[in-house]
Amino acid sequence: MSNAVLITKLRPPPARPGDTPRPRLLARLDSGTERRVTLVSAPAGYGKTTALADWVAHGSASAAWLSLDEPDNAPQRFLRHLVAAMQRRDASLRELGDFVGEDLEAALITVVNDLAANEAPLCLVLDDYHCIAAQRVHELVGFLIAHAPPQLRLVIAGRNDPPLPLARLRVAQALTEVRADELRFTVAEARSLLERQGLRLAAADVEELTLRTEGWPAGLHLAALSLRGRSDPHAFIPFFTGTDRFVLEYLTEEVLLRQPAEVQDFLLMTSVLDTFDAELAGAVAGLGGAGDAAAMLDRIERDNLFLVPLDGQHRSLRYHAFFQDLLQHRLRTARPDLPARLHRRAADALEARGQPEEALRHARLAADEVRARRLEVFLERLQPAAEALEAQALDAGGPDPGRSDRGTSASAAASPAADPALEPLTERELEVLRLIAAGLANKQIARRLDLSLNTVKTHARNVYAKLGVGSRTQAAARARDLGLA
Predict the structure, then answer these.
(1) DSSP assignment of 230-276, as one string?
(2) How is domain 253-374 classified at the architecture level of CATH?
């Protein structure tokens, strides 16, 4: 085996002309200096490498850098490059030869002892750690984390959570975590990015574009590419989705096609659902039970495949809007016969769960006219009772906590298939509440969820009644108190 070291793997990538300074991220990375490990974990295109390279360039740390790739799954190659990276910052580290033999821990002990003898602080950045699949390499990194001297800090960046002792580090307060929520662009950062790309948009257009991309950095860069040369950017922005050519190519090549076949199939089939839990996803994907679907969703969430939790318990979920656009496009293209069948499965499951409004939407998408008409008649009969209950709750200042029927969805309570264990809020109401808590106006929520403004107002009134509140501010505060947002 060659003992050559590829020097370009030991240098952070240089800044690009369009990169946007993000001082808040630099401060966040600085804040973890006292902890042993920093994990930067987010889906593709969230600017992990860019943020870390900017952090290193600004002198926030005396950092050794190692960009990982597939060949680093060979333990000897990995260890050779690991030592070479640290030697660039600490010349006192000894050469370890070719690491002949299997006792690589002995080689690491030599590294640890040399680091301990030199008290100067050292930060080691392991970028693109998602490229590592070899358990032996994970064991070596785990050994280094467990036995490193206090002056060594590790920063591990990748598209998924690595199989390292993260839970133990959390309990020991030795782990700093930077995830997608912190890596998303704010409106101000998006404006700066677009201006650096030569685009000067109206404030409302920047806000709309940030909203549509959900602050996804790659999405904003790709939007800038699509906007160049357009005479009327304002007219284009409402049509910028996950099926834009640049977005479609990026997500297909960088995300979807890198997944195993069973994960791709699950993603495609569940893309017909706007929001879902394990039970509903399993029913639509044909997995037969919530257990298998829950295991698949756990896997997808660990791998950061653009899955967005809608509650604190991660029971209610959705896909990032652009990722859902891609999945639905692939589904229609590859299996044009399948979407209608999947919508019928969704309608079956939702009606059985006592969610007739959502069941009706899927029945219409499945072109199941008989079921759709039956559900329409049911909801028409239910509407006067629901309106009376809502008015009563609002007049009384909210539901009586001593009355169990006040905390139940009117449609679920009246449906013959209702499950008494259902959460008081429907999935759509929960999503509206989450967006209210995030500070979005009704018009913004309508655009995000592709609903009419009147429908959003109806959902908001239902949410107020069920939570016993009378304003958006109170609803947001109540949602946070209950761990719903």
Answers:
(1) -S-HHHHGGG--TTSHHHHHHHHHHTGGGS-HHHHHHHHHHTT-SSB
(2) Orthogonal Bundle (1.10)
